Amino acid sequence: QVALVESGGGLVQAGGSLRLSCTASGLTFATYSVGWFRQTPGTEREFVAAISWSAGNTYFADSAKGRFTIWRDNAVNTVYLQMNNLKPEDTAMYYCAADQRPGNSIVLMTRQQGVWGRGTQVTVSS
Asked: Are the C-beta atoms of 108 and 36 separated by less than 8 Å?
């Protein structure tokens, strides 16, 4: 069964850090580009970061540049999102998504495309 499972969310104070993990099963992970998205109730889903299947290229939303890092370990079918200097506006449910497409088009993924996880909650207190 194909699945993505996110972990690592939690409650952190502003300025703190969290590392999210997205672990895949049931797919040839090394052939999938992976992205992170976030969403708060009543708002549109927002792209955060993506990494190509080869790990040669990474992409970030302006809100994440300079604070977030993304990398992958295909040996354990996992993509990581390191989030530093967190701000209250980073509070959201974070989802990972995977698809067999170029990394720079992950930002265009819809909920009906690829594989999506169930999300992990990140809450940043001021």
From this structure: no
